[in-house]
Amino acid sequence: MSTAINPSLRRAQAGTTEPAWVRYSLIGVALTFMFFFLVLPLAAVFTEALRKGFEAYWVALQEPDAWSAIRLTFITALIAVPLNLVFGIAAAWAIAKYEFTGKAFLTTLVDLPFSVSPVVAGLIYVLMFGAQGWFGPWLQAHDIKIVFAVPGIVLATVFVTFPFIARELIPLMQAQGNDEEQAAIVLGATGWQTFWYVTLPNIKWGLIYGVILCNARAMGEFGAVSVVSGHIRGQTNTMPLHVEILYNEYQSVAAFAVASLLALLALVTLAIKSVVEWRHARELRATADLPQEMPSA
Amino acid sequence: MALFSSARSHKAARVLPGFNITLGFTLTYLSLIVLIPLSALVFKTFTLTWPQFWEAVTGPRVMASYKLTFGASLMAALVNVVFGLLVAWVLVRYNFFGKKVVDALVDLPFALPTAVAGISLTALLAGNGWVGQYLEPLGIQLAFNPNGVVIALIFIGLPFVVRTVQPVLEDAEKELEEAATCLGATRWQTFTRVIFPSIAPALLTGFAMAFARAIGEYGSVIFIAGNMPMVSEITPLIIIGKLEQYDYAGATAVAVVMLVISFILLLVINALQAWQRRHTGAPA
After folding, report:
1. Which portions of chain A are predicted below pLDDT 50?
2. Mean predicted confidence (pLDDT) in B63-79
3. Chain-wide mean pLDDT for chain B?
4. Are B84 and B165 a contacting pair, CB within 8 Å?
5. Direct distance between the N- and C-terminal alpha carbons of chain B, in angstroms, rounded to an integer
6. Interatomic CA distance for residues A27 and B281, integer angstroms
7. How far is A289 from A296, CA to CA, in rounded Å?
8. How large is the ipTM?
9. Do the Cβ atoms of A221 and B23 come within 8 Å?
C-alpha cells in the first residue's frame, strides 16, 4: 500500500493528480465557499431562534397559530406525498416497462412542473377555482372553497412535488429492464405479485429517496402555497407561510423558531438520503461481487 | 442495435400486464394536475387583446423585473458553474476529513425550505448580521438590493451543478489522463484538453438547470431583495403584486411569458442531456 516502495508507481499517480499545494488550496476554497453559503445560513437559523434563550424559543413554538401551521403542513404532506407516490409508480411502470409512441414527450411533460415557477403554479389554480375562475361560479353556488382554503394548498403542493418520485423511479426501472418481471410472469405470478415481490424490492431505495425528497419539498413549499393560501392565520397558514408572517411582523425569534423546525426537517431529510445512498451503494457492490452463474447473460 | 432492442421490448410488452391501467392513470393524473390547469393560464390570456397583453408584459416595472431576474439568474448560474465544478472536483478526486458530511450538505438547498433560506441569508447579510457587520463598514451591502438576489440564487442553484458534474467526473476514465501525461501533457493541459471537454456537456446541463430554477425562484429571494420597484423586484413578485390588486389578466399575461421561457429552458435542458448521453456513450 505504501507509495514509498515503488517510485515508478508514484510517478504514474503524479500524472493523474495535482501537486499537494494545488490539492489543498482547491479543497480550502471549496470548503470556504460551502461554509459561507451552506453552513452559515443553517447555523444562523438556530442561533437566531435561540437568541433570547430556550425559554423564548419554547414559548414561540407553543403558540396556537404555530401549532395549526404545523398541523396543516403535515396534513398537506400526508395527502400530497401518497398521491404522487401512486402516480410515480404508475408513470414509471408505464414509461420504463413498455415502448410506445410519444414516450419521450410524456417524460418531458412529467418533468414540466419542475421548470414552472412556483408562483405560476399557484396562479393556475386561482384561475381554475378562484372567484373569477373557470369553476368559480359553480363552486360558489355549491359553497365549496378550494382557493384560499386547504384544498387549494394541497393542490398547489401536489403540483410542485409532482415529478419527484416518478423521475427517481423511471431511470432506475429502465436500467433494471424487464427480465425479472417476465420470468415471474412466465412462472405464473399475477401482475400484482410480480410488482410486489419482484419490482418493489428492486426499486425500494429509489422509492424511499424519492419519497423523502418529495416530502421535504411538500412541507417546505412557499411560493405556490403562498398564492393560493389567502394567509388566514390559524386556518390556511402552513409552516413556511407562518414563518413569513412572523418575520414581517418583526417577531424574529418566533419566526426563526418555526424556521428551525423546518431546518431540522431538512437535516433529517439529508441524513435519511445519505443513509439510503450508502445502503444502495453497498447493495450494488454486494451484487457485483457475486460469482456469475451464467456468464452469457 | 437500437432497432433490435426496441423490437424485442415491443414483444415483451405483451408479457407484462398493466400497460393500459398505468398509462391511463398517468395520463389522467397528468391532465388533471398539470395540463388542464396550465391550459387555464393560456385561455385566460386570450381574454386580453394583443395591445393589452403587450402593455401588461412590457410595462416599465415589468421590464425592470425581467432585467433583474435574468441578470441575477445568469450571474448566479455562472458563479455556480465555477464553484459547483470546484466542489464536485474536490469531492470526487480528493480525500479529506468530513468528506461524507460535506457531500451530504451539498443537497441542503434542495431540502431546506426556500423561505427559511431567505430569512436566514437576510439575517446573515443585514447590517447587524454575522457577515453583514464586517461588510457594511467597507461600504459593501449584500442585503436588500440586487446583490442579495444573486446570493439567494447562488444558494438555490448550487446542487444542480454539483450533482450533474459529480457522476460524470466519477465515471471519467483515468487511462485517458495517464495517456495524456505519458504523451507529455502538463497537468493543466490534461485538464483543459482531456478532462474539461468530457465534463463540459454536464457542466452546461447543470448551468441550464440552475438558471431555470433561478428564473422562477420566489421564496428565498423576496426576503433578501428589499423588493423596491424598478430596482430589486423579481418577475414572480410582479405576478403576486398584480394578483393582490385583483389584476388577474395582467398577472396571467406575465405568467405566460414566464411559462414560455420555462418551456424553452426545459427543451434546452432535454437537448443538453441527450447530447451528454451521446457524448459519454452511456445508456439513457
Report:
1. 1-3, 295-297
2. 96
3. 88
4. yes
5. 14
6. 30
7. 17
8. 0.87
9. no
